[in-house]
Amino acid sequence: MRAATKNRRKPAKAIVFANRLVHLGFRVGMIGDLISPVPKKGDIILFSSKSGENPALLNAARKARLHGIKMVVITASPESTLAKMADLTVLLPGELPEFKNIKQAGLAPERTETLFELLSFLIYDVITASLMKKRQPEKVCLK
């Protein structure tokens, strides 16, 4: 499993997700990380991009497609280039006016810039919990 994100800040949420997958026994790497193993056929790359049009992610997706690597895309843009290239697309809302009010009221988690970012993290938790249930049913507890 590879994770790719367009966020220019440290992709902490993707790193947390990657670490959880490692603890479940998956071979995991981050695109752009020099010590990550090179993805190969049979791997899955998870892309997370609100717009689905980031040039660096599109370049990585094209290379993945050439090597027969499956792609999962989390996006808010179903008609984006990245979404159209995906084997599986998870569509999240980009923004809702209500989220700005929630954030201003201090009810959103700290350092959460957008609703898309918050929901992406929740999707990572859902995927992790599902994989935990399949791989380690006796230990289904996220910490």
From TrEMBL:
It comes from the Bacteria. One of its GO terms (biological process) is carbohydrate derivative metabolic process. One of its GO terms (molecular function) is isomerase activity. Keywords: Isomerase. PROSITE patterns: SIS (PS51464). InterPro entries: PHI/rmpB (IPR017552), SIS_dom (IPR001347), SIS_dom_sf (IPR046348). It holds the Pfam family SIS. Residues 1-137 form the SIS domain. The keyword Isomerase applies. Belongs to the SIS family. PHI subfamily. This is 6-phospho-3-hexuloisomerase. It comes from Heyndrickxia coagulans DSM 1 = ATCC 7050.
